């Protein structure tokens, strides 16, 4: 058995382009053969990721999307970013790394934080009782929309649905943005199509999402990512004897993964609503 390991950043077209290369190689190698069948399988962790990929591939070929069956095995302990060094130990051959475009990364202390984001800056020194300062999230969104020259979508990571709704309400009644909310995989075809479609002329597309978006959303026109650095997790409260939900800081791997969502098609920007010192404190 031959094995080739391809390593690339998120959204760099590993799942969509590699089958093309395999098929082209197979055709060249079997040009004089009677073998007429080439079978390939692309496995993805989540159903919505498979639907999204299939829809985009069929759209590129002007075909009708016809998904007969999608079986996705859920495993919450896995990470969508493969550890190629560990994986390659089982095979002969080195991994191939696909570089992405330049990504400008900004931490909170680089954005006049004490004046524009005082509450968010203060939150960076906390390990407990975390909270998203929704008004200050909107401040950075307004800055990106009004001051940045590059057009393109903005993806904002927030902990849960309530945070998405609060930020959305603060953005309206602006008439120059189109806002989409993503907090689960249960998006219908119309909602998924809207997320991938370009907004009307003169409008900016903003996707407000929880960490579920890291696993299945691939946005072609994504240029900006705003990361609060928080997620909602379930904990067991010893005193009350019940399971409760609370905010915690994301891991360093999660933070790096969110950075990698951009940079596959051109220059992009990542704005962290936490300091570089807090980033260094994230667990590995």
TrEMBL record:
Keywords of the record, alphabetical order, are: ATP-binding, Helicase, Hydrolase, Nucleotide-binding
- Which terms does the record give in the GO molecular function aspect? DNA helicase activity; G-quadruplex RNA binding; hydrolase activity; RNA helicase activity
Work out whether the entry's keyword set contains Hydrolase.
yes
- Please list the residue ranges annotated as the Helicase C-terminal domain: 125-284
| Gene3D superfamilies per record | P-loop containing nucleotide triphosphate hydrolases (3.40.50.300)
Task: List the GO terms this entry assigns under cellular component, sorted alphabetically.
Answer: cytoplasm; nucleus
Q: What's the protein called, per UniProt?
A: Helicase C-terminal domain-containing protein
């Amino acid at each position: 058995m031959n094995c080739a390991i391809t390593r690339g950043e998120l959204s760099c077209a590993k799942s969509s382009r590699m089958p093309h290369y395999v098929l082209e190689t197979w055709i060249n190698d079997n040009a004089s053969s009677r073998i007429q069948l080439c079978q390939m399988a692309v496995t993805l962790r989540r159903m919505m990721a498979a639907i999204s990929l299939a829809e985009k591939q069929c759209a590129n070929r002007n075909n009708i999307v016809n998904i007969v069956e999608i079986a996705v095995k859920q495993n919450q302990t896995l990470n969508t970013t493969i550890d190629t060094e560990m994986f390659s130990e089982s095979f002969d051959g080195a991994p191939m790394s696909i570089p992405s475009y330049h990504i400008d990364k900004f931490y909170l202390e680089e954005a006049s934080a004490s004046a524009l984001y005082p509450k968010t800056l203060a939150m960076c020194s906390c390990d407990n009782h975390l909270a998203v300062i929704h008004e200050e999230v909107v401040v950075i969104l307004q800055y990106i929309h009004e001051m940045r020259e590059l057009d393109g979508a903005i993806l904002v990571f927030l902990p849960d649905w309530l945070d998405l709704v609060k930020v959305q309400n603060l953005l309206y009644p602006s008439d120059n943005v189109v806002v989409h909310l993503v907090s689960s995989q249960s998006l219908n075809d119309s909602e998924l199509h809207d997320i991938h479609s370009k907004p009307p002329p003169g409008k900016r597309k903003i996707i407000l999402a929880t960490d579920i978006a890291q696993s299945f959303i691939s946005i072609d026109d994504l240029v900006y990512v705003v990361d609060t650095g928080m997620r909602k997790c379930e904990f067991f409260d010893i005193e009350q004897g019940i399971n409760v939900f609370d905010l915690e800081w994301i891991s360093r791997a999660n933070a790096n993964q969110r950075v990698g969502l951009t940079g596959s098609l051109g220059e992009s920007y990542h704005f962290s609503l936490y300091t570089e010192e807090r980033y260094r404190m994230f667990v590995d």
